[in-house]
């Protein structure tokens, strides 16, 4: 999960994920959406592949990138669990504080 979090920490990579969320795209198509160089986009795609957030499929000489929805679901589940646990702790803390001070 750490590699996924590091991958989505970058705004460019989040934009790339949005681009390939519903439609496969080539690196060239993705790069056309940015003002950075194509090699820079390729580096971002490599990080997304290494974190398993995108998949790549070869079609002839082209490589098509698409988001891996299974990986996104795993990441979402882990983050939800984290937030659910933290919110439960906050609730318990607030309730304990209320009991100590006698406030409602």
Report on this structure:
It is a single chain. The protein has 104 residues and is α+β, with helices and mostly antiparallel strands. The chain has one domain (2-101): Arc Repressor Mutant, subunit A (Orthogonal Bundle). It contains five helices and three strands. Helix 1 (2-8) runs antiparallel to helix 4 (38-50). The two termini are 40 Å apart. The mean pLDDT is 91.
How do you describe this structure in short?
This protein is an alpha+beta fold and 104 residues long. The chain is built from five helices and three strands.
Question: Major β-sheet, in short?
Answer: 3 strands, antiparallel
| CATH topology description | Arc Repressor Mutant, subunit A
What's the rounded overall pLDDT mean?
Answer: 91
Radius of gyration: 20 Å
How many domains make up the coordinates?
1
Gross CATH architecture? Orthogonal Bundle
Number of strands: 3
Q: Count of DSSP helices?
A: 5
* SSE-based structural type: alpha+beta
Strand content: 5-15%
Helix content: 55-70%
CATH class: Mainly Alpha
Termini separation comes to 40 Å
Uncertain regions spanning at least 5 consecutive residues: none
Shape type: elongated
CATH superfamily: Winged helix-like DNA-binding domain superfamily/Winged helix DNA-binding domain
Helices and strands, in N-to-C order? Answer: HHEHHEEH
**Spatial order of strands in the largest sheet:** 1-3-2
